[in-house]
Amino acid sequence: MSKQFAVIGNPIEQSRSPELHHAFAQKMGLDLNYSKRLAPLDGFLANIQEFFSQGGIGLNVTVPFKEQAFAACAVLTERAKIAKAVNTLWMVDGQLHGDNTDGQGLVDAIRALDWSLDQTDVLIIGAGGATRGVIYPLVQAGVKKIVIANRTLARAEQLVADLKTAVPQATLQAIGLDALEGQFDLVINATSASLSGDALVLPETLQFQHAYEMAYGKPSTFLDQAKARGVPTSEGYGMLVGQAIESFSIWNGIKPNLKDFL
């Protein structure tokens, strides 16, 4: 019988994880089955317990359960501890293990674009969970300074206070959205502005070499402005594939090449 994997969330229909993991398995010559699990909002823990009790190997976790998954784990990776959210679960000797592969997915996607991260200055717009999850992997990849810009400055300042001891080799700074200026190697949009259709205005005082939009498949005023300046851009599909590859490699001990699936 093939190994069983799944993604759990609510809603779940939109997830592209099954097609990705089946594509990885086909490429690597593995036999597995990867399905979608819709969990009731108050039934996440019971659902994952059922999955593992029936012999399931690995679970991906999507909204709104990543924080609950974090709280449920007996063993956490360093990047999951820092992210305070888990998107990848597996069992070892009856203990639930958790990791967060989103940040590494972003790093691998940026590297697949042949954009350097070493010794770079990065601006991240937004101070939510998506930003928290990527700071540690970005610094591990060589980023030397990260500025977090957020509409509510206090939220960005709290994030910097929470994370600065985790990344002592880098400089973290918080600013308000009204203070966007300076020069950066890369700007990352981690807000839902492209999803909600809100205009995110990048002032002329802000200069950057590359622009990455974490969302994908939606119109992005952020990317439109970057393209108008002639700056290389990318939307977040590569990050989606990258985090899936990272989960796949944790569970199966074999890592597909990201560029094969872009």
UniProtKB/TrEMBL annotation:
Catalytic residue positions: 66
Binding annotation for shikimate: 15-17, 62, 87, 102, 216, 243
Residue span(s) of domain Shikimate dehydrogenase substrate binding N-terminal: 7-89
Residues reported to bind NADP(+): 78, 126-130, 150-155, 214, 236
Primary enzyme class: oxidoreductase
Pathway stated in the Swiss-Prot or TrEMBL entry: Metabolic intermediate biosynthesis; chorismate biosynthesis; chorismate from D-erythrose 4-phosphate and phosphoenolpyruvate: step 4/7
EC number: 1.1.1.25
Molecular function per GO: NADP binding; shikimate 3-dehydrogenase (NADP+) activity
SDH C-terminal domain mapped to chain residues: 236-259
Pfam families membership: SDH_C, Shikimate_DH, Shikimate_dh_N
Reaction catalysed by this enzyme: shikimate + NADP(+) = 3-dehydroshikimate + NADPH + H(+)
Domain Quinate/shikimate 5-dehydrogenase/glutamyl-tRNA reductase, first and last residues per copy: 116-194
GO biological process: amino acid biosynthetic process; aromatic amino acid family biosynthetic process; chorismate biosynthetic process; shikimate metabolic process
Sorted UniProt keywords: Amino-acid biosynthesis, Aromatic amino acid biosynthesis, NADP, Oxidoreductase
KW NADP (keyword) present: yes
PANTHER family: BIFUNCTIONAL 3-DEHYDROQUINATE DEHYDRATASE_SHIKIMATE DEHYDROGENASE, CHLOROPLASTIC (PTHR21089:SF1), SHIKIMATE DEHYDROGENASE (PTHR21089)
Annotated function: Involved in the biosynthesis of the chorismate, which leads to the biosynthesis of aromatic amino acids. Catalyzes the reversible NADPH linked reduction of 3-dehydroshikimate (DHSA) to yield shikimate (SA).
Family per record: Belongs to the shikimate dehydrogenase family.
Entry-linked NCBIfam families: aroE, PRK00258.1-2
Subunit structure: Homodimer.
Protein known as: Shikimate dehydrogenase (NADP(+))
Species whose genome carries this gene: Acinetobacter johnsonii
